[in-house]
Amino acid sequence: MNTSLGAAAPTGAIVIDQVSKTFDRGDDVVRALVDVNLTFQEGTFVTLFGPSGCGKTTLLRILAGLEEMTAGTVSLFGETPAQAARAKNVAWVPQSAALLPWLSIRSNILLSQFVNRAADRMPAGDRKRIPEDPDKVLAELGLADFAHARPAQLSGGMRQRAAIARGFVQGAPLMLMDEPFSALDELTREAIRLRLLDVWEKNRKTVVFVTHSAPEAVLLSDKVVVMTPRPGRVHRVVDIDLPRPRSRAILESAAFIDKVREVQSILREGWEADE
Ligand SMILES: Nc1ncnc2c1ncn2[C@@H]1O[C@H](COP(=O)(O)OP(=O)(O)OP(=O)(O)O)[C@@H](O)[C@H]1O
């Protein structure tokens, strides 16, 4: 099965080639990922979608340079994950906002730029990052009036928006998002997805996003990578050819509902094939 997300172009693409990951747990060996092959072009919004334990977070951690692969190679626009991490060319948006409680929202965001300053001293030609104006990003995420508030003064949805702002201001060409909305209620989640879409449409950064939600995957993505459980493999890559920019209205459209059903049925097919 061809799981390629586009023609391979090593420096303008993310290439995941025959990646496997095994965890050795003493007398038990867990095969978390087996022979994952994916290629996707810069500016693509990709979602990893699959059942619990299929290796989504493990793959994201490998891309972030936080986890070594057991076999295979990864090229992030021509760099290894370790090189990309060193140059701060990868931004990570976690499941919980993880903001420093004693700093304002704006200071939390500025801090992420401050800690990346060593990478900014690299020769301009070596730099892939273009740090963004924090006030602009805060405004785009509807947080302009809360820039000087402390995290405790914000709702959960607003804190998560602040975490997304922190990811965007770093200006890294690749943003990794590990179920960033999973702790939010459904209505807040829907609103924040639309906000993310709005900001993303403006800069078309490459994003690899993890979710368990088919509607979330379809709404946000250009490509949905459907994975199978135990061990994690790529079952299918589904093109989401819904027009952009996407707004709330698309959620009611027949094309959207059909695509969600298609992704859910491919997930079931992968699950049954595995049993
Ligand atoms: N550090 C680790 N040590 C041992 N096993 C691990 C480790 N990290 C992950 N695993 C195992 O690897 C497999 C894949 O885990 P992973 O967290 O990547 O899945 P996931 O698809 O992100 O799951 P979820 O959707 O529940 O977050 C699981 O069986 C998990 O128990």
UniProtKB/TrEMBL annotation:
<dbReference type="InterPro" id="IPR017871">
    <property type="entry name" value="ABC_transporter-like_CS"/>
</dbReference>
<dbReference type="GO" id="GO:0016887">
    <property type="term" value="F:ATP hydrolysis activity"/>
</dbReference>
<dbReference type="GO" id="GO:0005524">
    <property type="term" value="F:ATP binding"/>
</dbReference>
<keyword id="KW-0813">Transport</keyword>
<keyword id="KW-0547">Nucleotide-binding</keyword>
<keyword id="KW-0067">ATP-binding</keyword>
<comment type="similarity">
    <text>Belongs to the ABC transporter superfamily.</text>
</comment>
<dbReference type="InterPro" id="IPR027417">
    <property type="entry name" value="P-loop_NTPase"/>
</dbReference>
<feature type="domain" description="ABC transporter">
    <location>
        <begin position="14"/>
        <end position="254"/>
    </location>
</feature>
<dbReference type="InterPro" id="IPR003439">
    <property type="entry name" value="ABC_transporter-like_ATP-bd"/>
</dbReference>
<dbReference type="InterPro" id="IPR003593">
    <property type="entry name" value="AAA+_ATPase"/>
</dbReference>
<protein>
    <submittedName>
        <fullName>Nitrate/sulfonate/bicarbonate ABC transporter ATPase</fullName>
    </submittedName>
</protein>
<dbReference type="InterPro" id="IPR050166">
    <property type="entry name" value="ABC_transporter_ATP-bind"/>
</dbReference>
<dbReference type="Pfam" id="PF00005">
    <property type="entry name" value="ABC_tran"/>
</dbReference>
